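Subgroup meeting minutes
Present: P.N., E.W., G.H.
Scribe: E.W.

1. P.N. recapped why we're keeping a running log of single-chain structure predictions: easier to compare across weeks, and new members can see raw inputs and outputs side by side.
2. G.H. added today's entry (103 aa).
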Amino acid sequence: MQEKKVEYIIRIGRDDRYRHLHIKDKRKILFFRVQYETMINNIWYPVVRYDTAHGFAHRDLLNIKGETKKTPLFNQDYNDALSFAENDLKTNWKYYKNRFLEE
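Output recorded in log:
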């Protein structure tokens, strides 16, 4: 098995970033964690995260109080789930930020 770990962070707004981590074997994703974070008072807060940490692909919606709402993804193929998660976070991060700040 030839596992490869890919990890990076990109800025998507003045106080916003996208964190990405995945581990793959050839073309098959074995694990991933992608997360949108926003900075408030010089502290990075996770806002929404997609991962496979509990053995299944799911989304965690967080709020400013640190509470988490977990939603399983219907598509459990990790390659497809990662593609969906990346697209969702990069497209809808402003929506997630507003939701996070309003709660």
